[in-house]
Write a structure and sequence with these properties.
binds adenosine-5'-diphosphate; binds magnesium ion; globular; 4 helices; 136 residues; Heat Shock Protein 90; alpha+beta
Length: 136
């Protein structure tokens, strides 16, 4: 059991791991009293980011935690990999752009679905994307 308020880290090395991240984000979103719509948004964003970590990063680590600010609760999820990095972030965020076989909607879609979106990347070093969704 994870103590309340503690961050949980999960490896992302397989599709099963992506499912586990989804489940953890869901339970924290419910705990934080996000509405069903808000839950779905943050779960979808986390799922897309976890998949990118796996597909483009090769593997990585997800950190999922409950957050609270001024009495408002939420859930934060961070996805870190030591993959190739993103050479052109604006391009990567553009709807329809994919360097692989995707739809190119994951990164930009994830950004729209959450309240806070932070992307740090360095070519040859890796990528970290952190998203936060707050209950209304
Ligand atoms: N963790 C990552 N590491 C390296 N490149 C990434 C990562 N996440 C996203 N990208 C790049 O951003 C592009 C857009 O991502 P996304 O919008 O999720 O589309 P898709 O997954 O369909 O390709 C990817 O095709 C890839 O080039
Ligand atoms: Mg994607």
């Amino acid at each position: 059991m994870t103590a309340p308020g503690a961050a949980a880290t999960l490896p992302i090395q397989s599709s099963d791991d992506v499912v586990r991240v989804r489940q953890l984000v869901r339970s924290l979103a419910i705990e934080a009293k996000l509405s069903l719509v808000e839950q779905t948004k943050v779960i979808t964003a986390a799922s897309e980011l976890a998949r990118n970590t796996l597909v483009y990063g090769g593997s990585g680590i997800a950190t999922v935690e409950p957050v609270e600010r001024n009495g408002r609760r939420g859930v934060r999820a961070s996805f870190a990999d030591s993959g190739p990095g993103i050479p052109d972030v604006a391009q990567a965020l553009t709807d329809g752009y994919t360097s692989g076989n995707g739809l190119g909607l994951g990164l930009g879609g994830a950004r729209r679905l959450v309240d806070e979106f932070d992307l740090t990347t360095a070519v040859g070093a890796g990528t970290t994307v952190t998203v936060t969704k707050w209950a209304r």
